[in-house]
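Hi support team,

I'm filing this because I wasn't sure whether my run with alpha-methylisocitric acid finished correctly. The job status page said complete, but I'd like someone to confirm that the output block is well-formed before I use it downstream. Pasting the exact inputs I used:
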Amino acid sequence: MKRQTKKIITTKNRTKTAENAKKKVDIHPQNIAKQVVEKSKPKTVVEKILAAHCGEGVCTPGQPMAMRIDQTLTQDATGTMAWLQFEALGCARVCTQLSVSYVDHNTLQTGFENADDHAFLQSMAKKYGALFSRPGNGICHQLHLERFGKPGATLLGSDSHTPTGGGLGMIAIGAGGLDVAAAMGGAPFYLTFPEIIKIKLIGKLKKNVSAKDVILEVLRRISVKGGVGKILEYAGPGVKTLTIPERATITNMGAETGATTSVFPSDEVTKAFLHYQGRIKDYTPLAADPGAAYTGGEITLDLSKVEPLVAKPHSPDAVVPVRELKGLKPQQVAIGSCTNSSLQDLITVAGMLAGKQVHPTVSLVINPGSQQVLTALAKNGALASLLAAGARVLEPACGACIGMGQAPGTKAVSLRTFNRNFKGRSGTADAEIYLVSPETAATAALLGEVADPRQIKSIKKFAFPKRAEISDSLMLKPSAKGKQVDVVRGPNIQALPHFNELPDEDNGQVLAKFGDNITTDDIMPAGAKILPLRSNITAISAFVFSGIDAGFSVRAKSLQGGYVVGGENYGQGSSREHAALAPRYLGVRAVLTKSFARIHFANLINFGILPLCFIDPKDYSKIEPGHELSLPGLKIRLITGKPVLVKNKTTGAEWEMDCKLSARQLEIILAGGTLNYLKKSLNQ
Ligand code: MIC
Ligand code: SF4
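And here is everything the job wrote out:
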């Protein structure tokens, strides 16, 4: 498949507009210092890639930088919004080397909405120069790894598991749809240069202990907050013992540590994978220089000592050894998701199940990661073996991972090879979700209870194909005559809401107060009922916090907005910008917390919501739901770099809060959001 060249196609006029837009969006003088990476200094893999993509700024931890984006990916659940925003920017064509629009989340099609969204996305990709991956082709991250991931390149995706690409030695970052839309329009991605943690791998994994256990071990050690503001860079002699799908499992679920991304070096194993995928031309070796300094410190992990692990409900870092849960009886075992749906994973599972039967009390469901994976399973006999064992094989898609079908029964125990087990995400509020490796999942499916996978002997080895079978049957190329393509808009595709500029000062009621680790699934749930409404902000806003505070939306509407209070790590999890967009639509002006997760923090700013942090965490206890707050002199305080003053009109207490914004973010907040800011920049 041919890449898009780096030019904007269509009329000269449009090209000019887009180029001007690019200049204005790219460079913000106050925000941007000189690029001062010392050429001679030994560099980490991260520093090498970022230095080569540094539009402006400095590759120094804590400093702002603008990173040039080579590739973007969008998926349907975040993509309809991202593409509407791209359209609103007025660009004639995507300006990246490659942009791919995938459909993988909303494939349940319980009503007209999903299919309408698919048609919209297909027509947008055709018109604006992106590849379009049709429903059924597979999960965006698995497909991107197979077809497009490239060592040394940068990828921005409107999905938090975009770091999967780090398995191939690329800097792949998840972001809100609006940031991805801007990148498609040629803008860089603005980030604070993270600290880099070296994870030194030594030894080799034991049989039936897998990459999933490695990332669960990392989560056990550093928790769901340990990666915030950091990039995890893997190194050491253990790296070469891991295949690319194994590395991708690790970088994929690195997202659960809160890390900006994770990355592996590119080596002979990478080369073999790219050869297997028929893309050897994309190979470049890439390794850290000897003596490179890691600002975030070093963790050593001996692969030979890793044992099978499991994350208990309801957090990916509630990790314990499988042996501690021995005998726990699951009603469901689910194998798939972008973490564990590779051919290697499923061949291993098929080998373990071959000639045996799924336990009668367990429902085993399998979603292969891609059409390529499913085709290979069909050809080498593994699929027949899985079916004979009693597996329910579904189409290559996200499926149960995002609550699109396969919701477990009441209080059911479900063992899943996925990456998230937040309460209610499965579609069943009281289900108990455990995250495990494919090997542990297959063992439980056979025995009807949790047990050490090392005790299961595979009696059959299914052959791995010599070369991957590449098919474009579900991957469509854009039209060369984009102007002539009409966009298909069903009734579920609603116009983007308009938001006002930041007022001089603000007043309102505390609409809700929550504790630590509120996830984006808590703020804006997904699942079969709500996910189809992603293109319809009016409709989806009725579900804000619906799983944990059913009256929130009605209350916010009747009070015409107000404030939300949270604890540590507010907004962890997904990149869904609807968790900011829908609250803003309901009038939420500020979120007051102890700390924020990275992508959600950026999304709040993108939609003009103030992310405020308690300077003294004790001030958290000075607010209760229903209290009336005011933010006097808000605008002038932000402009002059002063902390934001909060007055509790109900109790008389007052305190200051941090609002740490770069100069560009300040302008965005003042404008009422990124779309307003970009439009203003274009007009100027
Ligand atoms: C998820 O795993 O939570 C999702 C669904 O893939 C999200 C994106 C979304 O909400 O659409 C993510 O991880 O970013
Ligand atoms: Fe899809 Fe689940 Fe991966 Fe999100 S985590 S992209 S829902 S498979």
